[in-house]
Design goal:
3 strands; 39% helix; alpha+beta; 88 residues; 2 helices
Length: 88
């Protein structure tokens, strides 16, 4: 947790170039936030973050904290989309 706080201090008040969100966790590969990523599955049992801003995979980013944050973000977005479609 201390390392994450140090990373946030280094970034300061910057925002993601793509989505405009304040940085909570940056990709070590492309530099975008969790919210700018999805997963691709190039091979069976292989999951790789994919940057939606750069339209490319981020194979260098394999930190469990980043991948876990991506899972949480994607799960929340899917739930939000389901709720919107049910309300319509």
């Amino acid at each position: 947790m201390a390392m994450l706080q140090a990373e946030l201090r280094e970034v300061g008040g910057g925002r993601c170039k793509s989505c405009g969100r304040p940085p909570t966790l940056w990709c070590e590969d492309c530099g975008c936030s969790v919210s700018c990523h999805d997963f691709i599955y190039p091979r069976e049992n292989e999951r790789v973050p994919y940057c939606l801003r750069d339209f490319g995979p981020c194979p260098k980013e394999q930190r469990p904290v980043f991948l876990g944050a991506m899972e949480d973000w994607l799960r929340g977005m899917r739930q939000h989309m389901r709720q919107r479609s049910q309300a319509a």
